[in-house]
Prior knowledge:
The structure holds 2 protein chains of 2 kinds.
Chain A: E1 3-13, E2 27-33, E3 36-39, E4 56-60, H1 62-67, E5 70-76, E6 84-91, E7 105-113, E8 117-130, E9 145-146, E10 156-171, H2 185-213, E11 218-228, E12 234-247, H3 251-257, H4 260-271, H5 276-281, H6 284-287, H7 306-313, H8 321-344, E13 361-375, H9 386-405, E14 410-421, E15 424-436, H10 446-455, E16 480-482, E17 490-492, E18 495-496, E19 507-521, H11 527-555, E20 560-570, E21 574-586, E22 596-599, H12 605-628, E23 654-658, E24 664-667, E25 678-681, H13 684-695, E26 703-705, E27 717-731, H14 739-760, E28 767-780, E29 783-795, H15 803-814, H16 824-832, H17 841-872, H18 875-884, E30 909-910, E31 919-936, H19 944-966, E32 971-985, E33 990-1006, H20 1007-1016
Parallel strand pairs in A: 9-11, 13-23, 18-20, 22-25, 26-28, 30-32
Antiparallel strand pairs in A: 1-4, 1-8, 2-3, 2-5, 5-6, 7-8, 10-12, 11-12, 13-15, 14-15, 16-17, 19-21, 20-21, 23-24, 27-29, 28-29, 31-33, 32-33
Helix pairs in contact in A: 7-8, 10-17, 15-16
Chain B: E1 2-10, H1 17-24, H2 29-38, H3 41-45, H4 49-70, H5 73-78, H6 86-97, H7 101-107, H8 114-118, H9 120-127, H10 131-149, H11 155-163, H12 167-182, H13 196-210, H14 235-240, H15 246-249, H16 251-265, H17 272-292, H18 296-300, H19 302-316, H20 321-334, H21 344-361
Helix pairs in contact in B: 2-4, 9-10, 10-12, 11-12, 12-13, 13-21, 16-17, 16-20, 17-19, 20-21
Amino acid sequence: MPGKLKVKIVAGRHLPVMDRASDLTDAFVEVKFGNTTFKTDVYPKSLNPQWNSEWFKFEVDDEDLQDEPLQITVLDHDTYSANDAIGKVYIDIDPLLYSEAATVISGWFPIYDTIHGIRGEINVVVKVDLFNDLNRFRQSSCGVKFFCTTSIPKCYRAVIIHGFVEELVVNEDPEYQWIDRIRTPRASNEARQRLISLMSGELQRKIGLKVLEMRGNAVVGYLQCFDLEGESGLVVRAIGTACTLDKLSSPAAFLPACNSPSKEMKEIPFNEDPNPNTHSSGPSTPLKNQTYSFSPSKSYSRQSSSSDTDLSLTPKTGMGSGSAGKEGGPFKALLRQQTQSALEQREFPFFTLTAFPPGFLVHVGGVVSARSVKLLDRIHNPDEPETRDAWWAEIRQEIKSHAKALGCHAVVGYSESTSICEEVCILSASGTAAVLNPRFLQDGTVEGCLEQRLEENLPAGCGFCHIPYDELNMPFPAHLTYCYNCRKQKVPDVLFTTIDLPTDATVIGKGCLIQARLCRLKKKAQAEANATAISNLLPFMEYEVHTQLMNKLKLKGMNALFGLRIQITVGENMLMGLASATGVYLAALPTPGGIQIAGKTPNDGSYEQHISHMQKKINDTIAKNKELYEINPPISEEIIGSPIPEPRQRSRLLRSQSESSDEVTELDLSHGKKDAFVLEIDDTDAMEDVHSLLTDVPPPSGFYSCNTEIMPGINNWTSEIQMFTSVRVIRLSSLNLTNHALNKNFNDLCENLLKSLYFKLRSMIPCCLCHVNFTVSLPEDELIQVTVTAVAITFDKNQALQTTKAHVEKSLQRASTDNEELLQFPLELCSDSLPSHPFPPAKATSVDYSSFADRCSSWIELIKLKAQTIRRGSIKTTVTVEKTSPMGEGNFRNRSAAPCANSTVGVVKMTPLSFIPGAKITKYLGIINMFFIRETTSLREEGGVSGFLHAFIAEVFAMVRAHVAALGGNAVVSYIMKQCVFMENPNKNQAQCLINVSGDAVVFARESELEVVSTQQPAANCQPACTGGEVTT
Amino acid sequence: MTSELDIFVGNTTLIDEDVYRLWLDGYSVGDAVALRVRSGILEQTGATAAVLQSDTMDHYRTFHMLERLLHAPPKLLHQLIYQIPPSRQALLIERYYAFDEAFVREVLGKKLSKGTKKDLDDISTKTGITLKSCRRQFDNFKRVFKVVEEMRGSLVDNVQQHFLLSDRLARDYAAIVFFANNRFETGKKKLQYLSFGDFAFCAELMIQNWTLGAVGEAPTDPDSQVDDMDMDLDKEFLQDLKELKVLVADKDLLDLHKSLVCTALRGKLGVFSEMEANFKNLSRGLVNVATKLTHNKDVRDLFVDLVEKFVEPCRSDHWPLSDVRLFLNQYSASVHSLDGFRHQALWDRYMGTLRGCLLRLYHD
């Protein structure tokens, strides 16, 4: 598909004065795409030129369209000397390349110069005409949609989730080329910006090709990163999850979306069913189970995950709860076997998603992570970045094997990162081992709806907690109990994950941000020695970070961590570890025990007194926290046969680290036989550890914080949001660099930063800081830089809902991917699954039976329906569409209208979350991925380092907003600042900063506005937001 | 451990009104922190002094960056760098251009030049307003003056359009600009009892009636902008005022005028005898002010003269304000009955404004 790119330069405003004599500017514009350049006329003597140019037309390959940015340069004409550049605008035209996104880019763009910052604005209109030319061997992947959002985007439905895609491109860093010695800093910066823009375009195109190969049409959870390896080059790498997405509830929008790839795709899984064998083996297992009063085995002919159903049905048929767990073993094995084969064809069964369609996530094993220390060498042949690829492949293999060890066949919430210092690089990968429902992985049309019903039979809110691994053959010494929710399955006593809290999870009380912070000094060393030193330190860091997390979790009286992100940063002379997660109390998991303190010298009276004092303090803190986070689980009677376990700390964290030598070591983070809740105070270090536990101050009242998408336990968000970035750099005094001083400094830095945020945002109380994302870097010997991006969202205190209601509501929202009648199921199920609900098996059976029979019959009906559709081929998709189209927006009626509906024209909201409270995303316009460099040689004049960086970040926000507005959007969701590299040289009065941000440009509408629209035009039109009749007020 | 860098950037720029006020008042970060501590904010929020310091620094930096835009408020509205809700933008602008009564009284009517700027030190010491704040206020006056100086059309409208100020503040600026342009003396000791409001009131009346813009049209007609200059007094009008001399120079006319006023006011005025005794002096004073207005020097001394020639004599005789009003009304109206006097319109244009001014100026 070659295309024609058309650009029109309309006007400029607020240009800088370039001619001191006249205080005016003679501006003209160069428009460049690929190797073609056009120029406008000079508009003399004006700071607000009106060029009103003709349409500049570029005829280009779609490959170039994807790779190249449109480059607009504003210059000042000078008759006698060279023309002076005022600044540039780079426009990524990718959003214009797929049909559903933006059709035109038009608006005011800040004119950016890497030395002077923003210098006025320029009004540009860009359009693309694509010619249809189906070339089988094409190198482009136009039409594949990209989303940064790590869940299925709100106005789409996942037909199939194909899985992991990754790609990496390398190049020489222009900053380190010989030519850099003779060119100006501006030229060098621009070369870098342009190169990275090109590389990310290329990367995106290549990933797109892989997606098309997998017969997908979109990448969700797209994460692109830069590794500035210095001398050895520049690596741009990306990971994501390939999916086939359907646009929701808009028949009009569906048809054009039905381009050949997506239609084809739905057929294929049917024709080439990847695992017929597992299906035939399916019925055999449940048949052993004589107590079944019905036989769902018929369905097994197609249902690969039906064993799941059996698990959940077992108790209802009157089987003893004790045996259920034992039965679970083989079932699980079966399930594993089945889904494994579904995932087998994939090299890496990884998913970058952190939130999933209902029923997708079956069980969660725990966090898996792998790290590797590498020595960087020059990349000799940029076209074959084999070493970097091999490094990552190695790490991913490890992750895969860890997941396997946990009895899981997949890894969700997967992410990768690097930390580079000089020539040493730590590669890290982490995710959550999980068992997935294979239906989304193959085909998810009618079958999807069918299984959805069955899925609802699973005890809602605890299924994912049940252990996926074999009880008798546990990968690590864990202590299991029966699930406190359903009492049927085994659960671990704590659960660590990297994903968001599943929306159907039953949580007691509210959650909170939990951080573990750690520094370790390291000797300065060169090359191999340095890498070895780091490798040796890593296991200790991981161990300590983990211990800290565990202790802090206990101190909060909680039993699970979500969104866990452990960042290890390497510096010249130290290593920093920062782990952030959101702690919650899962109703399904046992109540955490307290923390015991034991002294080593029991005879010393005063010492003992001190110990008991500490113990009291800790107990008080736990009690206080329970009150603060409203954790009051029902006092559960003990279940026969499942003794409340001895509190014991163990690890869900399988990790490994390896050096260049490929040596893999596994670390058991559990404390073995030792009762790990006991903190032994045997030296001053241990004492300080305990003290530091207690120094974490809870946020002031009215404030909550978490690093997940939403705060567990809060759901009445109002529409006011404030996204922010805060950066702090501290200089350590080199005199007293001990591990402890360092730890204290780092701890204080983070705590003070949080305190500052709470203070700054106090006008928003009651509010919650969501998606709090800390990044640590060590730019120099004695400097620690912490960057935080988060969003503060206000919520309505008075409107606080009952947990039950909220829960139902949430499920309803979740259920939006299913057809309407199904909406009712979560309702009843949720009320059943309330923690306080007693669970006498007999009663449960009688209550549920009728509805179950109901479901059973409709289930068979659906199978019939499906059988028909298979015969009739493509009709199948139509059925799905009909089923899904009226659905979804049922959630309106449950949410209260946002109080203030008037969004002022021109305001662009930014948020790291995938949604906007009180609003509905109606359209995704494309991915925003921007890279900026800013440099100054007059640092003092620009207000020092703080002034410089403050202005730069404000400018970056402005440029993101301008691009979104030009695409016709009014918000960026899933916004992330992936990199903020800041370097200064105060002696030379210089500083430089590189920032990389990304997100999804969207159009949103306030829910209250939508209601108005829908009452005016009740007929379902192509407006996805207002399907008739659904919206009731 | 020292903080090298410490910033907070919101997608919506955070504006703390209290800190903005401290910044506008010209306090250093240290002083502002101390003042905030004293306000009890630490106790209210449980924050530490370090947090307050960091917060204050941050706001100051933001304000400093916004200041460039505040110099041309329309720019603040159209810029893309700081996303600020319109209501906050309005607040930022309004507060930035607000000024202290004490300061404006010092500067009012002075030439807005470098020379005056040098005196800001003294003004700062005298008024207790920080030098920084004095500078900002002075620069605001000067900036507004420069922008509207050469403009046609209504002074208030011009100010409002180019600085996006509220109506009230725009009127004040119009007065300041008008006074600066005509260099009216306001600093004399005998004028100290007058407030800025008094002068602004007079300025508005004078702009409406005595400037070029007021000629030949109703003062409220906004359409006609031909030669509409609100800044300068109508030279022709000032020249014509000489014609009024006859009212006091012609003894018959003066006596007739006096008898008309006395007849009308007899029994109505508490201070009738004083009025009767002083009539000629007062009338001479008011008319002489008018006739002298052709000289720049006398224009500048307008307020001094009014106070000396009219306000003070009346005040020493303890005229109540109601009596002053009755007198002035009758005094201006009676001229219409003077057959030999031909400049009725001129008299009305002069006396109408002057009466308003005098009534405003007549207080303790």
